[in-house]
Write a structure and sequence with these properties.
Length: 207
């Protein structure tokens, strides 16, 4: 499954002359479902979309809060063209899930979002219709998200999930104490060694 997630100040969907739905500040999500997608892919995408930290906090710090933490809205639009494969210059959409299967699958994703978040803040377009999507991108901020593919063995999936959680925790932390201590030891052992930071050539410039 693929998604294009845009942080917006406002967004709306119009079919013909009728406006189907609109949101204020929040996220506009274009969602492309493939023939290989499963409920596991759907759950991954819902979790990521609702928890991506794309908004500032109350102190103005960027990339600190999710759409749920700010009580913002989400507009979802089914977008099978995200599953496009180019054959020369001609787009091929055979990897997209057929409409008769994709519609109930897409509806289940919306229901998952609504049960996880606030149902009145989750909006969508009109499945299968020719829509005009009006997006006022804020930033601009655009995130491309693809659900992971992997083994279906529950033990292996659990292992991968734990590894991913450890990676996310590591990224959110600064350098470890041991890393700083090792750097300090190297500096004491070789006073002329460069720290590796760009422009750190003071030892070469000294007479």
């Amino acid at each position: 499954m693929k998604a294009i997630i845009q942080r917006v100040t406002k967004a709306s969907v119009t079919v013909g002359e009728e406006q189907i739905s609109s949101i204020g500040r929040g996220l506009c999500v274009l969602l492309g479902i493939s023939v290989e997608d499963t409920q596991r892919d759907a759950e991954y995408m819902v979790r990521k979309i609702l928890n991506l930290r794309l908004f500032e906090d109350e102190h103005g710090r960027a990339w600190s809060k999710s759409v749920m933490e700010r009580d913002f809205e989400v507009l979802c639009v089914s977008q099978f063209t995200l599953q496009c494969i180019l054959k020369g210059n001609k787009p091929d959409f055979h990897s997209a899930m057929p409409a008769e299967l994709a519609q109930p699958f897409y509806d289940s994703i919306l229901e998952n979002m609504r049960s996880t978040y606030k149902p009145e803040l989750i909006k969508d377009g009109k499945f299968g219709a020719r829509m005009q999507v009006h997006i006022q991108n804020d930033g601009p901020v655009t995130i491309e998200l693809t659900s992971p593919t992997g083994p279906t063995d529950p033990k292996q999936l659990s292992k991968q999930e734990k590894q991913q959680q450890r990676k996310e925790k590591t990224r959110s932390k600064g350098p470890s104490e041991s890393g700083r201590e090792k750097g300090a030891q190297r500096s004491r052992q070789d006073p002329n060694a460069s720290s590796g930071a760009e422009g750190d050539v003071s030892s070469e410039r000294e007479p």
